[in-house]
Every structure is written in C-alpha cells, then in structure tokens.
C-alpha cells in the first residue's frame, strides 16, 4: 500500500496557492477507526469549548497542546502528515497543537474569515512558516459547512484581526478587497481527505444547515527555526517521533480497543 508523499509539483502549488488537497490521505478503514475513536472518546466533551459566530451559531472544538497516548497524536506524528508538512514549509515541522472540530447538524456555527497566523503571531512566532493539515472525519460539503479558502491570500502577509461576534476574525475591509481580486474556493472533502494549508491563508466556513455532522481533526505545526521567543499557550520546539504510515491502521485499532 502506498501513502501520500509530496512532490515538487505539490510544493509549487502550496507556495502559489497556500494549500493543497490530498484525496484519501487516510484510507477508508483508517478513517473509519478515527471516526469511531473520536465519537467514543468521552474526553472530548471534557476538553471541549465553544465559539459563537456573528449570527449566534456555535461550533465546538477540543484542543490539545500535548501528544498523549491517543489516536489524535498518532495522526499528528504520522509520516504522511508531519513529514509532508516539513517538505511544504521547507523546514522541520513540529507539533504546535491539534484540535477536533465538532460541527453538529443544524446547529454547528460558522467560522469567520481568519488566518491562523493572525492568532499565532501573538504567541512569540516571528515568522509565518507555520501550517495545518485539516483531515475530514465526515464528508465536508457546502451544506454542512466545508472550509472556504482564498487561493493566494497567504501572499498578502498577516492581516489585523478584530473581534467578530464571539470570535476573532480578519479585518473585514481587507477580506472584502481580497475577494474582489482573488477567487473563492469551497473545499469539499470525503472522509479521509486532507487539506494542507499555510498559516497565512484566509479561510472560513459556513454554518451547518444540513442534517449531517461535519467532524474534522486539524493538526497544527510550527517550524524549528521559528521556535517562539517567549512562552505561550502553545509549546516550543520539540522534535517529533514519527509513526510509520504502515503502522497507522494497527495503531488506530489498538487505540480504539483501549477505549472499551
């Protein structure tokens, strides 16, 4: 079985557009195990916090700065995610944090336009050499609030972020100007698909108005040379011990069994 390994063309697209989409980054059986694990994991509700959008909708997320002995950490450490993030960012990537995003049917809120580096800048990161891998646990469609991105917007640099509803979002005036000059793309995904994206890429999502959930796992990385100059809520550099891709399915099955 072969697993995704980025090529020069992927790196060129990432540099140009600020993202690449990888179909079947995780195989069907692997994704099924991840979905079953997340939905059986009672620790999610204990860690979960909510964010309110400008229209009053609510999205729940469970964030962790630690790589504990669980399946989320195995995804973070998998070669097909971490090693490819290193290639795309051009420097050794390390775990910055990860989060399960739980956008429930009919009530899941929107995320306002933002750049991840718009937040991370304040945590002592001098450069935007940071990125995330969004992994679809459920199907992501326009109806259930898939991600929207503005290709090439990472070249604009960091935009000021302001309070928008109960969230912090990018300056709406700048976003509107960007949308006059750059395209808008809806990133619809099947379970197991992955989206690698740059820390300065403008992205958002709509509310989930469908009867289908939209759960996802987002693995966030910083680079070794961008080690924060001060302590913050997210960790400083620590090298990752990578998990071989061929070992992931067995690891996932064992982790799921551990929840029983």
TrEMBL record:
<dbReference type="Pfam" id="PF05721">
    <property type="entry name" value="PhyH"/>
</dbReference>
<dbReference type="GO" id="GO:0005506">
    <property type="term" value="F:iron ion binding"/>
</dbReference>
<dbReference type="InterPro" id="IPR008775">
    <property type="entry name" value="Phytyl_CoA_dOase-like"/>
</dbReference>
<protein>
    <submittedName>
        <fullName>1-deoxypentalenic acid 11-beta-hydroxylase</fullName>
        <ecNumber>1.14.11.35</ecNumber>
    </submittedName>
</protein>
<keyword id="KW-0560">Oxidoreductase</keyword>
<dbReference type="GO" id="GO:0016706">
    <property type="term" value="F:2-oxoglutarate-dependent dioxygenase activity"/>
</dbReference>
């Amino acid at each position: 079985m072969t697993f995704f390994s980025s090529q020069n063309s992927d790196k060129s697209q990432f540099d140009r557009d600020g993202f690449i989409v990888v179909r079947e980054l995780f195989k069907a059986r692997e994704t099924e195990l991840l979905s079953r694990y997340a939905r059986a994991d009672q620790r999610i509700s204990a860690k979960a916090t909510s964010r309110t959008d400008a229209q009053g909708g609510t999205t729940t997320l469970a964030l962790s700065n630690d790589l504990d002995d669980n399946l989320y950490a195995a995804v973070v450490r998998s070669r097909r995610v971490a090693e490819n993030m290193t290639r795309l960012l051009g420097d050794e990537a390390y775990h910055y944090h990860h989060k399960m995003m739980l956008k429930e049917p009919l009530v899941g809120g929107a995320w306002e336009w933002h750049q991840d580096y718009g937040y991370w800048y304040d945590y002592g990161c001098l450069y935007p050499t940071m990125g995330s891998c969004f992994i679809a646990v459920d199907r992501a469609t326009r109806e259930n609030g898939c991600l929207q991105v503005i290709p090439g917007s990472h070249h604009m640099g960091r935009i000021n972020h302001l309070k928008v509803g109960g969230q912090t979002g990018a300056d709406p005036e700048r976003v509107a100007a960007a949308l006059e000059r750059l395209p808008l793309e809806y990133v619809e995904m099947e379970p197991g698909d992955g989206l690698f994206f740059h820390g300065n890429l403008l992205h958002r999502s709509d509310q989930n108005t469908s009867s289908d959930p939209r759960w996802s796992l987002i693995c966030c990385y910083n680079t070794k040379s961008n080690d924060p100059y001060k302590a913050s809520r997210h960790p400083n550099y620590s090298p990752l011990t990578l998990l071989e891709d061929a070992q992931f399915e067995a690891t996932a099955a064992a982790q799921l069994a551990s929840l029983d």
